[in-house]
Amino acid sequence: MKRRxxxxxxxxxxxxDKRIMYLENHGKLVPTRELxxxxxxxxxxxxAGVVNTGVLDAVxxxxxxxxxxxxxxxxxxxxxxxxxxxxxxxDYEGFPMSVCTSINEVVCHGIPKATDxxxxxxxxxxxxTTILDGYYADASxxxxxxxxxxxxxxxxxxxxxxxxxxxxxxKPWGYVGDIGYAVEQHAKRYHYGVVRDLCGHGVGLxxxxxxxxxxxxxxxxxMLLVPGMVFTIEPMINxxxxxxxxxxxxxxxxxxISEDEQPSAQWEHTFLMTENGVEIxxx
Length: 283
What we know:
Blueprint: H1 15-25, H2 39-62, H3 69-82, E1 86-87, E2 100-103, E3 106-108, E4 123-132, E5 135-144, H4 150-169, H5 176-188, E6 193-194, E7 200-202, E8 209-213, E9 230-233, E10 236-238, E11 244-246, E12 256-258, E13 264-266, E14 269-274, E15 277-280
Antiparallel strand pairs: 1-4, 2-4, 3-12, 4-5, 6-10, 7-8, 9-14, 10-13, 11-12, 14-15
Helix pairs in contact: 2-3, 4-5
């Protein structure tokens, strides 16, 4: 069997190495060494996170009823350019814009358009990933446009709670499945669906790295989480079913919609696993 965790040539295994190898020998899925970031890499990702947070802050200052989602894209591009960064989404596998703007029943990957005008009562997820000096950071926020219904307000709140509860469940030497279990249990209390077709992911040196961070599952399953790993938690919570479909009218094949076309909400942070739990690198 090809081992995932290997010591560097000529180096004796540290206690850290031995702990991971022991768990691998007992059948656990462990990270590769490349998934454990160096201090230099962590600082680079942290700097990218600062810019990414600034992008979403800039959107938060300007977002309002009557503006188009294309205007949101322009805000994001301008902030990135002013801070020496690049939008990771732009031209990624054919995605035509720099940010994802997902309104109401659009679960994720909504494409900004001049014809998509925000209206009073809409809820919208704005999802942005920054590349700065070769390092990636990823986050999304929900925004409520004006006054909305109590049902949508609750959905947005519970989706944020799912993110926070998932983060609290992420412990050093725990497992990715611990996160998904915690998220799913909280969403179930409200009879919400947790989207299964999309997930969080490792991030930092690439846009998408291992591990896949599912937002449902069982405790003690999935990849081992160790200090130095960087990943997103980004639960997509639907008011109805967890099932989704790709919008047939989207010529790019990106926009994901809840199957019953009920509203969906999502919050996302990039996290660094430390010896004491997770540190948030993006807001």
